[in-house]
Amino acid sequence: MLGRAHRGRLVTVGERDDDERPDPDALLARVKAEEQREKRARLKIFFGASPGVGKTYAMLEAARRAKDDGVDVAIGVVETHGRAETNALVDGLEVLPRRTTLHRGVTLDELDVDAALAGKPELILIDELAHTNAPGSRHAKRWQDVLDLLEAGIDVWTTLNVQHVESLGDVIQQITGVKVRETVPDAVLERADDIELVDLSPDELLERLAEGKVYVPDQASRAAQNFFQRGNLLALRELALRRAAERVDADMLAYRREHGIETPWPTRERILVCVGPSPGSERLIRATKRMAEGLHAPWTAAHVDVIGASPLGERDRERLEAHLRLAESLRGDVVRLRGNKVADALLSYAREHNVTRIVAGKPTHSRWRDRLRGSMLDDLIRGSGPIELSVIAPLELETPPPAPRGRTPDHVEPRAYVWALLSVLIITAVGLVAFSYTTLAELTMLYLIAIMVSSLLGRGPSLVAASLAVLAFDFCFVPPRFTFAVSDARYLLTFAVMFGCGVVISTLVVRLRRQERDAIARERRTAALQAFTRDVAEATDVADVATVLARHLEETIDVAAAVLVPDDKEGLVAAAGLMPLATQEITVARWALEHKEPAGHGTDTLSAAKALCLPLIAGESAVGVLAIHRRRGEPPRLGVDQRHLLDALARQAALAIARVQLAVRARDADVRARAEELRSSLLSAVSHDLRTPLAVITGAATSLRDQRKQLSEAACDDLITSIVDDASRLERVLSNLLQLTRVETGLEPTREWVPADEIVGAALTRTEDLRKSAKVETDVPPDVQLRIDPVLFEQVLINLLENAVKHGRPPYSVRAQRRGDAVEIEIGDRGRGLPEGDASRLFEKFVRGSAAPGAGLGLAVVRAIVEAHGGTVTAQNRPGGGALFRIVLPTPEPPALAEAS
Amino acid sequence: MTTILIIDDDEAVRRFLKTVLKGQGYSVVEAPTGAAGMDALKRAQPDVVLLDLGLPDGDGIEVLRAMPPHRHIPVIVLSARGQEGDKVVALDSGADDYLTKPFGSSELLARIRVALRKQVQSELTTADVLQVGPIRIDQPRHEVTVEGRDVHLTPMEFKLLVEFARNPGRVLTHRHLLREVWESSAADQSHNLRVHVASLRRKLEADPAQPQWLVTEAGVGYRLRDGSGPKP
């Protein structure tokens, strides 16, 4: 339990996992993780609430105990800050030299990672995990050094304060008012095999601080004064304890799962957080991460791109990206959604993915904006149904993400006309009331304000407001009053100015909106392109690329697509059968491919076609054609933006196809290399099997030549027999090689109808010598016919007979019979049977059944030839002992015999 | 004295053949090329020709075609395994027999004896009764016995057997048999031929799957062993 302890009582928390259900995958992952832990280096973190709780001391103490147990401990970096009791602990431990760098006149000591890696101690102590390294170091952050060391198999012990945990950054800032810059990703904490909480009560800590036992850097002393407040320390301690307790929970979960303890598990929670570019989103993300950890729930950060919304500025976009990256680094999923309304998009995603809770930020804008534009939060609440909603206040008030605006620059809500009318009415009312105190010039100004405000709403409202203003002004105020008559021609100029203002301002507004729309389009294009690039990066073949492209085209510009790639044989083939193409469309596609120019609908070439065909050009060559049309076969109608997007996607797809094709070529090259390897191993095996009989022949022949006189007649006979036997052995090896090459080079067997007994007879005749005329039991009915290449198939039977003679014992047997659509041929012996292990391995090249000579090529040849005939060959042990090889050849009914004349 | 012409580009093969043949009392003429071979054909008037199919100056088939038409000189073709097609072409172009390299000397001598005997036998084949090994054929009576046992053959099988018995020990290609027995050159008849040979074999042999007399030369044709020589 977590107690008030100083240095001595520590809470050790074990490893954790993210899931809570004991599904088989998790168990497997656990076993694997367990295995990996056997080998991989261990990371232990001495975790504390604040500086001064005694983490370093605890670590050194533990290290001394480890050293006493015989562990090879080295100190990488330990800051004792000159404290005597800590120094005393360092004594007697090996201290690795630091790497010294000079930076802007200051000498900086850093952990020497290379020295540590070279020294390769069993365990290395590295203080201050969150430390930022001096410029020019191997990594920017010390925790990255630590990961390197772990990677190299060195155990690491390190210290860390709770304020440096990345996901707690904003909470710490809220508590202490200090923005923590040195943070350690949560993933590193999760990587830790052990976390030891070093706990000290705030009172004791403050006491130690007062006694000067806590090191406080000079330059930070003022900040530190603020930091070491009792309230802060209490809050930090709670955070640290909670963080450690989460680990206990996780550990317990892991334990329960490991031991298969069945309890009613909570239904799986899934949290969705809505993220925008506003700085408040960062807090939302961190809060969601903590919430998710507490619930052991997976979480997702979603950003909604509102269709037709004004594009984000450079800064906003960067911030949004940063937020999404943050979410990713905190192990959240990241999705980008599109929709007309933020709430709708979020809810539909949430329902699809069984999200149980949505986290959103408190609105920071005024209420009237919600009235005007509708409130995202309201919509969420109304539409969320069973989904819980958590609304969290952003850290600071900032401008919220821009809300959806009008769909096109020229589109004006009817409401705007009401506003225009109202503004003129209000000004008129004000003018009527204040007429006696004002001059006409001032009234003109007031009307101009109404016109300007209305102009912001669009050209229509602007013109309405200007006309109404002119009319109202003329009628109500211009003498003669309450008539439309004008006494002084100068007022006509006033009218003109009022009207002109409206026109100019509204024109400017419209132009601005146009630009905005273009920017949105650009933005969307970029986003679509990015999304496509991301998805297509995972494609491994042309069909993948085509599928991804078609999907994106359907999503972004709502067209059906097909990708056609040139094929050696058929000209053009569809890489993905996404959209059937008519013959004439294929002609268009072929034209586009050959001329590397777009063709079909909307182009200068073959424009009568329903589809638009774009060549996919990578570098100099066209790698394929993209054909699109609207679903249901109508020709596509594309706007300029969509056309741009289409072109951009086509370019990307072309590059992806080129990349994939290159990969395929690389794979082919790999296959060739493997074939080459096989060939060389064949060569070496064969040269062995050729040399052995040659050696016998040469030896025997030279003996006969040189020592005939000393040799007895019997010895001479023996030598002669060896020569003859080994010559025929050579012949068999060569014959097998020849057949194997023939079959493997794809030579089609010349198939003829042959009576089974004829081919069996031929094989038996040719193996008479080999068998030394041992008995072969044959059961080959006269009506069994085979459709085979007699020369190749004779080799099959000879090899199987030779194999039987070599590895088995007589009586040998050959049996053939028709079974349905196939003929079965069995060759058996009565030997020891097959060697242990996989029988199919026998048919691989250079596998030998026993110590008997031969290249192990015979059965490989059998399989190659049988397979070239469309058949199969298997080996098994037969009842009563011995091996049985069975060939099954698919065989149609033999043709009827034409009666001879 | 019987003269044998060896046309082979490999000196080692020629030396081996010469040694074996001279040991048997044959006179030997050598030619390393097809051209030299054709020259020697005219000059030496050989009784048997041993012809290698793979010659440096062209196909051995050329030599076969250049054989003097007025006098039949038996030709035994020497070739490697895997050249069954070439063998068939050579046999159909007038070669009498073939030997697959590597071959043993007794096999070679047996083939030469068969080839030489055929020369003598050509008039014998018209005899009424033919005897090959245990097989006796009485042509006028259409009677066949194997080891004295009566065997009933269909007319086609009888014609086949007579053709084999007229060429004992010699390989007969499918085409040869089709031409001589079926009086047809259609290659699609070869299935027919196989079935008839198989059926004939079943009547002649004790174990047709392990034939002793009517053997198959895979990819080339059939041979009716004559009882005199050793088994090939």
Q: How far apart are the termini of chain A?
A: 106 Å
Structural class of chain A: alpha/beta
Shape of chain A: flat
CATH class of the largest domain in chain A: Alpha Beta
User: What portion of residues of chain A belong to β-strands?
Assistant: 15-25%
Query: Biggest interface in this structure?
Result: A-B, 36 and 32 residues
The profile of the biggest β sheet of chain B is: 5 strands, parallel
Structural domain count of chain A = 5
**Mean pLDDT across all amino acids of chain B:** 83
CATH fold label of the largest domain in chain B: Rossmann fold
Average pLDDT taken over every residue of chain A: 78
Radius of gyration of chain B: 18 Å
Query: For this structure, what is the CATH class of the largest domain in chain B?
Result: Alpha Beta
Q: In order across it, which strands form the biggest sheet of chain A?
A: 1-9-2-8-7-3-4
Widest sheet: strand ordering of chain B: 2-1-3-6-7
Assigned CATH superfamily of the largest domain in chain A: P-loop containing nucleotide triphosphate hydrolases
Distance between the termini of chain B: 26 Å
CATH superfamily of the largest domain in chain B: Response regulator
